[in-house]
Write a structure and sequence with these properties.
GO terms for molecular function: acyltransferase activity, transferring groups other than amino-acyl groups. Helix content is 47%, strand content 19%. α1 (20-34) packs across α2, α3 packs across α4 (124-133) and α4 packs antiparallel against α7 (185-220). The chain has helices spanning 20-34, 43-52, 96-111, 124-133, 147-151, 159-164, 185-220, 222-228, 233-240, and strands at residues 2-4, 7-11, 55-60, 65-74, 79-87, 116-121, 136-138, 173-177.
Length: 242
């Protein structure tokens, strides 16, 4: 158990089931605000993760929900992902996201000591947290090729970009911790600090490049745009990077 002032970060259990609906509602609201989609999860799915001991929850001493994250396994346990990281708006920028990520990473290493731990993110802040834990930026080819995992991207507004790039690239940056071949956290932390401005520029370039490519494709095939009724890409990207 870890504490940040009045915030407790711990492994979730069956007694936390009452938080499940609040968690899923906040996940959906946060995804809409960012303009990015995540694989939708039901309260029942979140409760199952709690019962299995594959989740971390944060709350205040008086029981107010603060944050949550859970573990998913892919490719028969060869890969695991720390998914669904969410923090209540009232507690953002308190450092609790970093605490949750650290706790869920430790839990993943305990439950799946040989598994590669990976994540996808569009945010520089999450990249920094991951780097502090020992994750390294990698190509998509180094991630799980489990079709079930990639199917979860269908609910994301960027899914068409992922398919256009033949699942080799997208708006997200892939990061991986390989227990059999990795740098020490201090090394990845220092590397990120040194290259953070470079990563920020790369994220901006990726956004601009994909936007231009997709607008060109959309212009050539207006019937596809009409059939899918996609949102305005300009609006979508401004939401992601605002």
């Amino acid at each position: 158990m870890e504490q940040n002032q009045n915030i407790i970060v711990r492994i979730a259990n069956s007694g936390d089931a009452d938080y499940a609906e609040t968690i899923t509602n906040e996940m959906e609201a946060s995804a809409q605000a960012r303009g990015t989609g995540i694989a939708k999860r039901s309260p029942q799915y979140i409760i199952l993760k709690m019962i299995e001991g594959k989740a971390v929850i944060a709350h205040t001493k008086d029981g107010t929900w603060v944050g949550f994250c859970y573990i998913e396994e892919w490719s028969h346990g060869e890969f695991v992902a720390n998914s669904g990281l969410i923090v209540s708006p009232a507690f953002r920028k308190t450092g609790v996201a970093k605490q949750i990520k650290k706790k869920i990473f430790e839990l993943s290493r305990q439950k799946y000591p040989k598994a590669k731990i990976f994540g996808l993110t569009t945010g520089l802040a999450v990249m920094k947290i991951n780097s502090d834990l020992g994750y390294e930026p990698v190509t998509y080819s180094e991630l799980t090729q489990d079709e079930t995992f990639w199917a979860g991207c269908k609910s994301c507004v960027n899914y068409d970009i992922l398919m256009m790039k033949e699942r080799k690239n997208c708006m997200c940056t892939a990061m991986l911790y390989d227990p059999s071949d990795h740098y020490e956290p201090q090394e990845t932390k220092e590397h990120f600090k040194e290259k953070s401005e470079v990563y920020a520029r790369l994220l901006r370039r990726k956004k601009n490049r994909f936007l231009k490519a997709f607008q060109k494709k959309d212009k050539q095939k207006p019937e596809v745009r009409e059939q899918k009724k996609r949102r305005s890409l300009v609006s979508m990207f401004s939401m992601i990077f605002s």
